[in-house]
């Protein structure tokens, strides 16, 4: 009689719990898309590059079932497809940011560990004055300022 009760029209629509089960078993692709969107949104909405744990924390506010393994897997995909850029600062921590931000630099707070994007570039103006050896051509540069962010400086 199991099949008949399944077809019973008086049973009504499944409740939210049943919908979640259906979502997880038969619409895995759709669920992954929304987790991927949450991860992408967390990275895009940040004012600076984020470590994996920070991405998990922020993306979980949008999709609560998100786990760290999915974050790692998604970051690998986004990095390989060129949408997200991974950078490593002097603390050795890998952080992730949108790849289309253009040339910019970072401020790394030694107290809270957060990294902030700095708009523009002060180096380009002085690049021709930097004494590189004869025949060398500068193609790129990196610059990270270290110190205290406003919040940490105020509580120091
Ligand atoms: Zn700080
Ligand atoms: Zn940045
Ligand atoms: Zn620059």
Chain-wise SSE layout:
Elements: H1 2-7, H2 16-26, H3 28-45, E1 50-51, H4 52-60, H5 68-80, E2 84-88, E3 94-98, E4 105-109, E5 115-118, E6 144-147, H6 150-155
CATH architecture: Orthogonal Bundle
Provide the number of structural domains.
Answer: 1
CA radius of gyration: 23 Å
Classified by CATH, the class is: Mainly Alpha
Strands side by side in the biggest sheet: 1-3-2
**Number of contiguous helices:** 6
Largest sheet, if any?
3 strands, antiparallel
Bound molecules: zinc ion
CATH homology-level superfamily: Winged helix-like DNA-binding domain superfamily/Winged helix DNA-binding domain
What does this structure look like?
The structure is a single chain. Helix content is about 40%, strand content about 15%. The termini are far apart. Strand 4 and strand 5 form a beta hairpin. It has one domain (about 25-135, about 140-155): Orthogonal Bundle (Arc Repressor Mutant, subunit A). About 15% of the residues are buried. The protein contains six helices and six strands, in the order H-H-H-E-H-H-E-E-E-E-E-H. Helix 2 (about 15-25) packs across helix 3 (about 30-45) and helix 3 packs across helix 4. The chain is globular, with a radius of gyration of 23 Å. One zinc ion (ZN) binds next to loops.
């Amino acid at each position: 009689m199991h099949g008949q009760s399944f077809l019973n029209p008086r049973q009504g629509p499944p409740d939210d719990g049943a919908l979640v089960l259906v979502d997880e078993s038969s619409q895995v692709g759709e669920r992954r898309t929304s987790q991927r969107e949450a991860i992408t949104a967390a990275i895009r909405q940040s004012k600076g590059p984020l470590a994996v744990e920070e991405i998990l924390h922020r993306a979980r506010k949008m999709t609560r079932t998100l786990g760290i393994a999915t974050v790692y897997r998604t970051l690998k995909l986004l990095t390989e497809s060129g949408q997200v850029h991974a950078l490593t600062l002097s603390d050795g921590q890998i952080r992730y940011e949108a790849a289309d931000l253009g040339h910019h630099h970072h401020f790394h707070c030694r107290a809270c560990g957060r990294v902030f994007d700095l708009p523009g570039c002060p180096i380009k103006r002085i690049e021709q004055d930097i004494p590189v050896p004869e025949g060398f051509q500068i193609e790129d540069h990196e610059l990270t300022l270290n110190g205290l962010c406003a919040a940490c400086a105020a509580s120091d």
